[in-house]
Design a protein that fits this description.
The chain has 420 residues and is an alpha/beta fold. The chain has 15 helices and 17 strands. It starts with 9 loop residues before the first helix and ends with a helix. Bound molecules: pyridoxal-5'-phosphate. Pyridoxal-5'-phosphate (PLP) binds next to helix 6. Pyridoxal-5'-phosphate binds next to helix 6. It is an enzyme of class 2 (transferase).
Length: 420
């Protein structure tokens, strides 16, 4: 346990009317997330603590968000310093952090002269802006938009229209039209779909996170770039989860030669926990697809969020985290493979975005058993355990989970046999 004390005594607060936090959550919240398994009160580095004082190794990082872990001094000082100067000003005004962040992102994205940035507050909003850009490209001559099977682009209506999972989409139809889903990694299907020349854009995640951490084949990603360019279609890469050094590259697509998107969307790791999203339009033609008055946001690009994001990007650079992520990520994947456990089929992904494939659909139970054992992971689908920890995590810390994994699988399978 660390010495750091929480400012709020949640146990005392919970005792107030004799109700548990679980009960109060269930009564006060709209139940879209189900019942959370723990109430967390504080964090430090790669650890968090619940309201009973139990410590957890955070291997999920708020779903690829807590880039620098919890309570990182660079984030704390950026928050404090910027809050003293300006928290928010509206987009009638510019601020230095916003301009610097845009310039930094353009540089890291290796965007050509004439490119531009739009700031939002979340991944889904960044994708809404991308959807608008797609609609503006080609107008009535290009009514079609392509997305991939197993895609996840967010929960607002436009981003949802691009998300393949029917359970998410169908209850909210009609959604914005014109979207078709293509099987991922199928070049022939892609070529056929683009051939008529009436497709405005293709949306793709270089690593499909919610699908269970499934990277696109590099050859498919290259074909996506070549074929979209050939047909005048925009390539829109959603790097909301895979971006910001998560893969060991600033952006996951940079691992594949010759792939530069027309649009890239970002969020999750960008603010290290502060909500901020961004869209980068590559080159002057794409940038010009949104003109003054065609899009907007009240909070997007506020100086507080921009200052924190600059601190995140600066720390990744100064601390050499790109190399670190590649090194510890590869070591983790190798060590899990080296377990040679027949219940583990593969380790997918790159850097510190990894999916551990299981031979049986027991991932939710394994995630629950992991939590009991002091590890936060999740199950994006029934047969995958995902880890997306803070990028500052060490190989030794990751090794504690690798070592525990066979025992966790034993526990879950023993319970399943007992229950049968
Ligand atoms: C999480 C995610 C989104 C949605 O981001 P929100 O901030 O939850 O709106 C979009 N695309 C991808 C690839 C994501 O992983």
């Amino acid at each position: 346990m660390s010495e750091k004390q929480s400012t709020v005594n949640l146990d005392a607060a919970a005792a107030g009317d004799g109700q548990s936090y679980a009960q109060r959550y269930t009564e006060a919240m709209i139940p879209v997330f189900g019942t959370p398994q723990r109430v967390l009160v504080r964090g430090e580095g790669v650890h968090v603590w619940d309201d009973h004082g139990t410590q957890y190794l955070d291997l999920l990082g708020g779903i690829a968000v807590n880039t620098l872990g919890h309570g990182h001094p660079a984030i704390l000082s950026a928050l404090a310093k910027q809050a003293e100067d300006l928290v928010h000003v509206s987009n009638f005004f510019a601020t230095a952090p916003q301009i610097e962040l845009a310039e930094t992102l353009l540089r890291l994205a290796r965007a050509p002269e004439g490119s531009g940035v739009f700031f939002a507050n979340s991944g889904t909003e960044a994708n809404e802006a991308a959807f608008k850009i797609a609609r503006r490209h080609g107008g009535a001559d290009r009514p079609r938009i392509l997305a991939l099977t197993d895609s996840f682009h967010g929960r607002t209506m436009g981003a949802l229209a691009l998300t393949s999972k029917e359970a998410y989409r169908v209850p909210f139809e009609p959604l914005p039209g014109g979207v078709e889903f293509l099987p991922a990694n199928d070049e022939d299907a892609l070529a056929a779909a683009l051939a008529p020349g009436d497709v405005a854009a293709v949306f793709a995640e270089p690593i499909q996170g919610e699908a269970g951490v499934r990277p696109l084949d590099p050859t498919y990603l290259q074909a996506l770039r070549l074929l979209t360019r050939e047909h005048g279609t925009l390539l829109i890469l959603d790097e909301v989860q895979s971006g910001i050094a998560r893969s060991g590259h600033w952006f996951a697509h940079q691992a594949t030669d010759g792939v530069v998107p027309d649009v890239m969307t970002l969020a999750k790791g960008l603010g290290g926990g502060f909500p901020i999203g961004a869209l980068i339009a590559f080159g002057p033609e794409v940038r010009a697809l949104l003109s003054a008055g065609q899009h907007g946001t009240t909070f997007g690009g506020n100086p507080l969020g921009a200052a924190v994001a600059l601190a995140v990007l600066g720390t990744i650079t100064e601390d050499g985290l790109l190399d670190h992520v590649r090194e510890v990520g590869d070591r983790f994947a190798e060590s899990v493979s080296a377990l040679a456990d027949p219940r583990i089929t593969e380790v997918r992904g790159a850097g510190l975005l990894r999916g551990i494939g299981l031979s049986e659909p027991i991932a939710p139970q394994v995630a629950a058993a992991s939590l009991e054992a002091g590890f936060i992971v999740n199950a994006p689908n029934p047969s995958t355990i995902r880890i997306a920890p803070p990028l500052i995590i060490t190989a030794e810390e990751l090794g504690t989970f690798t070592a525990a994994l066979p025992g966790l699988l034993d526990t879950v399978l023993a319970n399943a046999t007992e229950g049968a």
